[in-house]
Each structure stands twice: as structure tokens, then as C-alpha cells.
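Please check our next protein.
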Amino acid sequence: MTEAASLPPVNDSRQPLVFVTMVRGDYPMLDLWVRHHEALAGSRDHLVVMSHGADPRHDRLARGCSRLVVPHDPTGAGFEPRRVALLHGLVGGLLGYYRHVVVLDCDEMLVPAPELATPLADHLDSVAFRGVALSPAGFDLTQRPVSEPAPLDFTRPILDQRRYGYLHGEYSKPCIFRAAPRAGGNQHALIGEPWQIDPMIALIHMRFADQGFGTRTGRSRIRQLDSYNRAGSDHRIGNWDNRLRQMARVQGRLDRSDHPDLTLADRQAFAARMQRYYERFNRTLPWLQSRDEPRRLPDEWLGRL
């Protein structure tokens, strides 16, 4: 793949933007994902929701979206490699019809920063970046129990209820594609590709935004992985036990820490630091060093999610 700066061709007749997710269960999150990205895409016609196993509730929540159902394998054999191959293959096909293909988990919301004065699609058309994909600045939105004790209401504006978290390299994912990725890699790092984070776009990660929801989801994932492990499958998903422990740690840190407002300068400095890490560690990211200090989203972010 070329590392030369690239822009869509002038007078490109393709549609500007499509959002893609793959989901199993996760009903409140899927509902939020569809409603939020419908506003950015301009229509549910430009949302693709893939269900991992047939699910009538997905059919209702994603009504009007492009739908794809793939069979659920109860053994979990090759789960993550197959999922990535499916998503990346779909990226290649959709780029025949769209200038930008955004691939997100259903607990990830793409949010233009308050400083961005142009529509997201226009901004992406104007950004030259190396390689096949652009990364937003990942923000791990996390419930701060001492000041946000109430459970999250997914039907209300999220940033009216949750304002705290961390910039995090793990969620600064190369997920905004302008060209098809080569085989290999995963949703957090693409083999042989440069990393470029755009501080004018955020990826708000929602898994820890509510303690109760995060705990229930985490326990469900642990049970699923236990089932896969008993079947002896090479699922390559990783370990969910440590994610529940991580949620407890970061919530405790938020309760104890100062939390200055997140600024554009913070996001720019974070993007530059992640770039240095990525080059230093031979195009991988040291996850333990990629979480920034606690921050609060200022009032300018209200209404954006």
C-alpha cells in the first residue's frame, strides 16, 4: 500500500460515507449506535448492521439499515480472524460505492469534535492521510460513580449523563477507510500501514460508561469465552476477566483524580505521542502506555452524543 498522502478524486460520484458494525445481542447499544450514526450519515440507507446470528430484535432496531446475518458458530472457531476478514472484505466492496467506510463496534460512536466547523463527510474529503485508514482520537467514556451515580439512560443524550474518561490508544483505531486493507491485522492495528490520528474526530468508547451495563456485558462475554475455551477453539478474542478489573481500576482513579477539561491541544499532543510510540515499537502500540490522564468533556461536547 502506498504511504503517499491521498484524497478522493475530484468529481467522485460515490456516496460520501457509510458506517458498518457487527453485533450479537447488545440491544441498548445497537439502538444508540443506529440513531447516532443515522444523523451523521444522513440516512439509515448508509448504515450496515451485521448480526452474528439471526435476531428479530436486531431486525426491529436496525429497520431501514442495510442488513446482513452471518451464522453463529457455537464453538467460536477462528472467531476473531473470521470476523476481521469479513469486515475488511466488506470494506473493499463498499469502497466501490462510498468514498469513506467507517467500521465500528456497536459500543463505539464516532463524534466530530466541537472545533470541526464542516460536516464530517466534507472534512474527510479534505483530509489527506497516508495508508488506507484514518484513526479518530479514542476516548474511553467511563462512569465516575462519585458524581454520576445514576444508571445510564440510553434513550437520553449520553453526554448529559457522562462526561469523564481517558484518551486511549486502544480505541484510536484505524477505522475510517479510504482504500481496502491488506489481509491480516485486526481492528486495532493494520499490518504494514502507517498510523494517523485525526484529533478533530473522536471515537467515544461506551463499554465502561455504565457500571451495571458494563458488568452484565462483561460477565456475559466471560461465559461465552468459557464456552469457546471448553470447545477448544482458537477464537483469539483475548480475556474478558481483565476488562472487568480494568473498569474497577479506572473508575476508582476517576473518583480520586483531578480531571481537567479535554482540549484540542490535549488531543493533538495525544495523537503525536501515540505516533511516536507506534514508530518506536515497530508499528505496534504498547497498550499499558497508551491511556492518557483523566479528562472531562467540556460543555461544548454536549448534544454531540
The chain has a mean pLDDT of 88. The first strand starts at residue 15 and ends at 23. Helices lie at 27-41, 56-61, 79-94, 120-126, 211-230, 241-256, 264-280. Residues 211-230 form the longest helix (20 residues).
